Amino acid sequence: MPNLDIAVLIVTYKCAQLTIDSLRSVQAERGTAGLHIRVLVVDNASGDLPAIAQAVEINEWSSWVTLIAAPRNGGFAYANNLAIEHAYLHGSPAYFYLLNPDAQVRRGAIGSLVRFLQTHPDVGIVGSSFENLDGTDWPIAFRFPTLFSELDNGLAFGFVTRLLRHWVVAQRMSMVPQPIDWVCGASMMIRSAVFVAIGGLDENYFLYFEETDFCYRARQAGFSTWYVPESRVMHIGAQSTGVTRGPQRLPTYWFESRRRYFAVTFGIGHAMAIDIVAVLAHSLGWLKRIAARQTHTAVPHFVRDLLRHSVLRPRNRNFPAVRCCWSRR
Asked: Which of helix, strand or coil describes residue 61?
């Protein structure tokens, strides 16, 4: 019986050394019985490829690492779709494994995800448990964002969070596999049949919300998503964007991605209601921080930026159909 073809997709943007470290961690997994693991690295027009190519040559990785120079920085979804296209030029992968350049797989991480998918044919997407750089656990997966999660996020009151606990997005997971709405794209394995059914990731998202949207579309097509803690990955995080490094002003593309997700998922009317609730909740949350002298914990200019990019403005209501450079139907 031939080995299962596993295509690992790594998108790099000014993360050359981290990508090399990630490749080295994947190399240790290539001896997993029954698997043929190959890697496709896409540089999103950042100039990372020369350093990575040198490491590939020095370490003699060229038989299993393919380097792809994206013609432009089209974002996370765009680059992964580009890698999927290239992967199919040299075979038909059974599974695609999205891996961040700032992530390193621990022993057995890839094999654990494959085994779960092999024994659960109804599952389309699986994600790993994470550890931080210092070795501490980060066992988090996610529910889909909703009006209630936006209310909780804006108010940031303990009793409200307890009241709305069934809608809180980030979930601390247990040490047993379990279904969840969506998993972090830093370590996400996808059954090829999911791409056949719904196409690739939506390139209308430059960054953020693309894996949320993808898992939602997969669920609509009948594919569930599971968290598989046996697969463990070290993830440094925020190396390309810095968005998650404490309270700081969020980039335009974060608001644009958020706007598209809510409008496409729920419709423009519902998305407008969500934005009204978010603005009010964050305004009340800001007043609470003023009273507690904790304004330093708030994301700067969040309400102002949210209103600027909100679907409440007519000019922000143009939502193109799902767009991907790859579709295998």
From this structure: coil
Residue for token pair 């997994």? 29
Could you report the per-residue pLDDT of 144-189, keeping only the tens digit for each?
999 999 999 999 888 888 999 999 999 999 999 999 999 999 999 9
User: Residues 6 or more apart from 39 whose CB is under 8 A from it?
Assistant: 7, 8, 9, 10, 23, 26, 64, 65, 66
Q: What are phi and psi of 220, to 5 degrees?
A: -60, -25
Output the pTM of the full model. 0.94
Question: pLDDT tens, 49-78?
Answer: 999 999 999 999 999 999 999 999 999 999
**Exposed e or buried b for every residue in 257-273, given b needs 16+ CB within 10 A?**
bbbbbbbbbbeeeebbb
Residue 257: the pLDDT is 98
Residue 232 is classified by DSSP as: E
Q: Report the residue count for the chain.
A: 329
Phi, psi dihedrals of residue 93, rounded to the nearest 5°: -60, 140
Please tell me the distance from the alpha carbon of residue 102 to that of residue 185, in angstroms, as a whole number. Answer: 12
CB count, 10 Å around CB of 319?
A: 14
